[in-house]
Amino acid sequence: QLQASGGGLVQAGGSLSVSCVASASIFSLIPMAWYRQAPGKQRDLVASISRTRGTEYADSVKGRFTISRDNAKNTVYLQMSSLKPEDTAVYYCNSPIGEYTRFAWGQGTQVTVSS
Predict the structure, then answer these.
(1) Band of the pLDDT at 93, cuts 50, 70, 90?
(2) Residues in CB range of 57: below 8 A, 6 or more apart
(3) Where residue 24 falls among pLDDT bands split at 50, 70, 90?
């Protein structure tokens, strides 16, 4: 089970942090990632972190977003700064397996950036 939280409304240029708790005993052994889905668009990968804390980012968020994880808390975080209206979306976490994901999707958390 994946439980994302921390979303909200923020002005353009602002910052916001979201977190996701995974009810998985294997959490420390698997990669985790954040995805987002804007209205009418497909869900896209935003950032990923390996079990050894290597990170990758979509070009659209590189330099603005930071993904991190706390294995003791089974939690993955996404720190977002210099937010833009185009960052508005529902943000989800999951564990990537190639082009697929390991878990059923949770409810996500809404992030809205006003201009």
Answers:
(1) very high
(2) 46, 47, 65, 67
(3) confident
Model confidence pLDDT, tens digit, residues 51-68: 999 999 999 999 999 999
Please state, as a whole number, how many other Cβ atoms lie within 10 Å of the Cβ of residue 62. Answer: 10
For residues 58 and 70, give the distance between their C-alpha atoms in angstroms, rounded to a whole number. 22
> Token digits for 14?
């602002």
- Cα-Cα-Cα-Cα torsion 30, 22, 72, 47, nearest 10 degrees, comes to 60
Radius of gyration of the chain (CA): 13
How many CB atoms lie under 10 A from the CB of residue 13?
Answer: 11
Taking the C-alpha atoms of residue 30 and residue 96, their distance in angstroms, rounded to an integer, is 9
